[in-house]
Automatic annotation (TrEMBL):
Pfam families attached to this UniProt entry: PPR, PPR_2
UniProt PPR repeat ranges: 110-144, 215-249, 250-285, 286-320, 321-355, 356-390, 391-425, 426-460, 461-495
Family, similarity comment: Belongs to the PPR family. P subfamily.
Listed InterPro entries: PPR_rpt, TPR-like_helical_dom_sf
Superkingdom classification of source: Eukaryota
Protein name according to UniProt: Pentatricopeptide repeat-containing protein
Keywords of the record: Repeat
């Protein structure tokens, strides 16, 4: 088939094109534009037939003969080439057409052709192909604009291709192409979110010598990442550098670094920063600021300081949130002051705060710690009335407290309720009940709970196996204890010294030195 025979059979072009298009249903993406040219140049109506002919010829008549190449060379324009690539509806075919025309035709593709292919390949996850088209673009004398660059950098970053993104940034800066601060910040943010903090800090430092001017958001991103991993002193270095770049910390900056300090138990430094904000005219502490410091004092058990700051917050006109009440209730519960915890719980409604599962779990934990398990069970009833569903920790705390009081049947009932809920069970919830039944000599019930646990795809952990091994040893069921020990090893759970010594000691007392020696040899 030649180009000239095709021109006489235009009516067959559409039906032929439909053969390959459904197999490549790719949505092309356009968007970026060069300076001063906001959209690709439209082609004339009479040129559309030629676009369809070129597409069909390219797909079905490879390799093209000299006559066809000559005709295309004389008639193709950048606008028509863009329409051909778009009409092919496949970035892979589009790239092949681009490569063929670069090698065999004396035509220049427009910016829009490269833009279309790069965006489409990125949306398909074919970042190597997108990078190849970008290289062709530069070789052919086109420079990307800031919008296309931002799109590529974001696409590479979302896919975790940080090396490609950094290399692209370095290249375009050497070409004096403008990179927006938004694009750089977006990449830094994705690096921090995907736990590539060191690379983010390195990227920041690499770009300081170029036209990169960090803004407050830049510093907030890096400070948040450093505080999250406990590197608060390094975060302070960035905090102190802000003004040298003409940036000033906003409330997000202060809240991030205060929260970081309080998480590292440097609550007094966090409180000092809070006081610093209060002296500023352009920034004021909000409920997040106060709650971070209050939470820090609660974790240290300094409930007087936490209460004083809570009063100060309300005097300043800042209303507490549910989180504020929760950290205070939890703090009072942990120091055993349930009167204060209950008083705060009762005040929540007057501030428009509705108790949630964290509120109830903190109260339940507080009552369990002072040995008032019955009060904690009453709170379960209150949760049902308020339609608040317990979480895994609500179950774990209550079950553990019941087991300590040897109320194993009630604990078992809660375990059954847990299994009826959409909660992923954890071994630490089952272990106290299994331990309780083992110590009570009811190994059959302990084994039944383990079987239920495994049925729910909750694998026993080291503590579970240790409880079972020692429990069976104490009842003289040595073969069962050995069987559990072997299973423990087979699932890749390494026993600790307590488990090994206890089992070996019981085997020797039971007159089973060979088994004791075998276990000693395996574990050593």
């Amino acid at each position: 088939m030649t180009l000239f025979s095709l021109t006489n059979r235009v009516s067959r072009v559409l039906s032929a094109s439909k053969v390959f298009i459904p197999h490549r249903r790719i949505q092309f993406h356009s968007g970026s534009h060069p300076q001063g040219n906001k959209e690709p140049k439209a082609i004339q109506k009479q040129e559309f037939w030629f676009v369809k002919v070129v597409c069909t010829l390219f797909v079905y008549s490879q390799p093209l003969d000299d006559a066809s190449l000559s005709y295309l060379n004389n008639n193709l324009t950048p606008s028509i080439e863009f329409e051909v690539v778009k009409w092919l509806k496949s970035p892979t075919f589009g790239l092949k057409f681009l490569e063929l025309s670069r090698l065999n035709l004396n035509t220049n593709h427009s910016f829009w052709t490269y833009n279309l292919l790069i965006r489409s390949f990125c949306c398909m996850g074919l970042y190597g192909s997108a990078r190849l088209v970008f290289d062709y673009m530069k070789i052919d004398g086109h420079l990307p604009d800031s919008t296309l660059l931002g799109f590529m950098i974001s696409s590479f970053g979302r896919a975790g291709k940080f090396g490609m993104a950094r290399k692209l940034l370095a290249e375009v800066q050497s070409d004096d192409v403008m990179v927006t601060i938004f694009a750089v910040n977006n990449l830094l943010n994705m690096m921090v979110k995907q736990n590539n903090l060191e690379d983010a800090v390195s990227l920041y430092k690499e770009n300081l010598g170029s036209n990169f001017n960090p803004d407050t958001w830049t510093f907030n991103i890096l400070i948040r990442g450093l505080c999250r991993v406990g590197k608060v002193d390094q975060a302070f270095e960035f905090f102190n550098d802000m003004r040298s770049f003409g940036c000033f910390p906003d409330i997000v900056t202060y809240n991030t670094i205060i929260n970081g300090l309080c998480r590292e138990y440097e609550v007094d430094r966090g409180h000092s920063l809070l006081n610093e904000i209060r002296l500023r005219d352009d920034c004021a502490p909000n409920v997040v600021t106060y709650t971070s410091v209050i939470s820090g004092y609660c974790k240290l058990g300094k409930m007087e300081e936490a209460s004083a700051l809570f009063d100060e917050m309300m005097s300043s006109g800042t209303l507490p949130s549910v989180v504020t009440f929760n950290v205070l209730i939890d703090g009072f519960g942990k120091v055993g002051d349930m009167l204060s915890a209950k008083s705060l719980y009762e005040k929540m409604a007057s501030f428009g705060c509705i108790p949630d599962v964290v509120t109830f779990t903190s109260l339940i934990n507080g009552y369990c710690q002072i040995g008032d398990v019955n009060r904690s069970l009453q709170l379960w009833d209150a949760m049902k009335l308020k339609n608040v569903s317990p979480n895994v920790y609500t179950f774990a705390i209550t079950i553990n407290a019941l087991c300590k009081e040897n109320r194993l049947r009630e604990a078992s009932r809660l375990l059954r309720e847990l299994q009826c809920r959409n909660i992923v069970p954890k071994p630490f919830i089952f272990n106290p009940v299994i331990d309780g039944f083992c110590k009570a000599g009811n190994l059959d019930e302990a084994n039944r709970i383990v079987a239920e646990m495994e049925k729910k795809k909750c694998d026993p952990d080291k503590v579970t196996f240790t409880i079972l091994i020692i429990g069976h040893c104490m009842k003289g069921r040595m073969l069962k204890a050995i069987s559990i020990f072997d299973k423990m090893l087979s699932v890749g759970c390494t026993p600790d010294d307590v488990t090994v010594r206890s089992l070996i000691s019981c085997l020797l007392k039971a007159g089973m030195p060979k088994e004791a020696y075998r276990i000693s040899t395996i574990t050593s």
